[in-house]
Amino acid sequence: MTEIPTLIVARHLPTGQGKTWTAHRGYSVRRVRGIDAYRSAAKDGEWLTMTEAAAALGVTNHVIRRLVKTGVLPADQVVRGAPYQIRSADLTAATVKSSAARKGRPCRDSDASTLPMLTDT
């Protein structure tokens, strides 16, 4: 119920006067009705944005997105395309810390029998 303005904007529905929804109109409705834009906007430390979670773990947003996509790090979205809401307590899990610390570098085969792509000609 509290995410109704977000759902309206996401589905491109018109306002009661037939106008398009803008960020200002959505903010105005939330302010008048006392609805938070998203949980991490409260800044109480319980919910974090993706950028705040990345800073807390010392990694990039891409790493956080990969952890969310693979299901290692639980995250909520109000609607598809909305910012992720990440609980700060979930960042302390051992699986999240070990996955974030792992570097996603490609494997290199240092075998002497491997032929180079470019030869010196």
From TrEMBL:
The keyword ATP-binding does not apply. Keywords: DNA-binding. Pfam families: HTH_17. Signal peptide: none annotated. It comes from the Bacteria. GO terms for molecular function: DNA binding. Residues 95-121 are annotated as: Disordered. Residues 47-91 form the Helix-turn-helix domain. NCBIfam families: excise. This is DNA-binding protein. It comes from Sphingomonas populi.
